[in-house]
Structure formats: C-alpha cells, structure tokens
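Data card: per-record layout.
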Amino acid sequence: MSWIRMAFGGVAFLGVASVGSAQTAQQGPQGAGTPPQQRAKQGEQGAGREARMTKRLFAGIELTAAQQEQLQTIMHKYAAEKQALRPADERQRVPDAAARAKMLDITTKSQADYRAILTPEQHVIFDKNAALIKERREGRLEGRAKQNKDM
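The structure for this 151-residue chain is written out next.
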C-alpha cells in the first residue's frame, strides 16, 4: 500500500512542478515586461547591447591589461554617439534608415579602432568574429525585409 502512496505522491509532485514551469515560460525571460525606463536604469539598454557585441567580437581573444584599457576607452568614445541615434521610445525598436546608416558607420569605425589595438595573431580571430556578426546582421535584415513584403 505504501508504494501506491509514493507513486501517487510522485505524480502529484510532477504535476505541480510542470504547472510551475509552464507559468514561468508564459512570463518570458526575466525583465521582458520591464518598462524601457526601468531597463535603462538597470543598464540593459544600449550598454548591454554594446557589451554583448564587444563580447562576440573578442570571443577567443586574450587581451592584455593595456589592451583592455584601450578597449574601454574606445567603447566609451562611441557609446554616446550610438545612444544619441537610438529612438527615445525604445518600443519603437527600429530606428529610421538614416539613423541605421549612421549606426553602421559608427560600428565600422569602432571596429577599425578595436582592430588597431590587436596583434596580427589576434586580427585573424577578430576578423572571423566580425564577419560572423556581419553575416548574422544581414540575415536579420533580409528576414525583416521578407516579413514586411509578406504583410
């Protein structure tokens, strides 16, 4: 009789656990429903994007302390320029064409500055990472164009 109770208890536990995980999945990732102003306070807006992009660019590259300092200087140099181009209302996720072109220009300049602080051996990895990022960006743009065309 006790094995029946244990089996029933196990089934009940799994049922409760699955309901909890389903509710978590419906809520989305942490911070997804957070207003843009609050996300900005948490540093998740422009700075978070730049940090993720920089992390992808330098994946597999060991930087010296001097290179890390130079990297921070370059990041701060371009961060304000990019932030000024972003829409004031973050819900309007896509900036206009002129702003996108300026952002791409700033990105190109910043990547050239990043590359300048690297050794020739590090250039190989950096160039590969930059090409992957560019390919991914172009794929997203093509996907958006196709989606807009289908509407």
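Known properties of this structure: The CA atoms of residues 141 and 147 lie 10 Å apart. Confidence is low (pLDDT under 50) at residues 20-44.

See the next section for split statistics.
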